[in-house]
Amino acid sequence: MTNTKQFIRFSWNFGRSSIKRSDYCPTYTDERATFDEVDRFLSEVERIYFKIMKPVYVYGTAALLYTAISLLFNILGHKEEKNNQLAWLVEAAWYLSYLFVFSLGYFFYEYKKEKVVSQLQLLIQLYHTSFGAKELRWVIPGDFPEGIELWKDYQVSNMKTYIEIGDPSSNSESVKLVSKGMP
Questions:
Q1: pLDDT tens, position by position, 115-155
Q2: Distance (Å, rounded) from C-alpha 168 to C-alpha 94?
Q3: Diameter of the chain by CA atoms?
Q4: Residue 182 dihedral angles phi and psi, to the nearest 5°
Q5: What's the mean pLDDT when you consider all of the chain?
Q6: What integer pLDDT is reported at residue 175 of this predicted model?
Q7: Closest CA to 6 of 137, 161, 100
Q8: What pLDDT is attached to residue 82?
Q9: What is the model's pLDDT at position 93?
Q10: Contact criterion met (CB below 8 Å) for 23 and 35
């Protein structure tokens, strides 16, 4: 878990198939979100993720098993093979099937990941009323599924905004809005 002034990032613990949240403390959000509220939301995220992604893990396991078995047969086949041209064809077929299986797995993973993101966006909309009233907002980062973030919008709204007027000697009439503390 990462806690900054603008957001809290909850990271996946893929070994335990869960999002790490044990370090969360309500003081990280200035007592705006309790541990139970955050835990309830993250539990829903986990449920959605693993419900949709389970077939991907099954496919990945089957693909690894396929690779191990076909590699074993490929190695054993070379010992018994007397015709070099046939051995070359068998090996080429194995590489093509390997490429096909893992390409299919990649596209399957990306498809399921998009489904997870769309379901999580719906979940975020459902929880927006309760968290939005506290000026907190859940965000799916670009590197999802590495983690999910809780943004502290109240920190941004508390930053002072002032107007910076262009240099009068340059006859510039430009005016820009500058926020202190913004990245």
A1: 999 999 999 999 999 999 999 999 999 888 889 999 999 88
A2: 73
A3: 88
A4: -80, 145
A5: 81
A6: 41
A7: 137
A8: 58
A9: 79
A10: no
Buried b (16+ CB within 10 A) or exposed e, 101-128: beeebeeeeeebbeebeebbeebbeebe
Q: DSSP of 100-159, one letter per residue?
A: HHHHHHHHHHHHHHHHHHHHHHHHHHHHHHHHHTTTEEEE--TTTTSEEEEEEHHHHHTS
Q: Which two tokens stand for residue 65?
A: 């098993």
| Regions of the chain where pLDDT drops below 70 | 74-87, 157-183
With beta carbons less than 8 A apart as the criterion, state whether 173 and 159 touch. Answer: no
- How many angstroms separate the CA atoms of 97 and 78, rounded? 18
Whether 62 contacts 105, CB under 8 Å: no
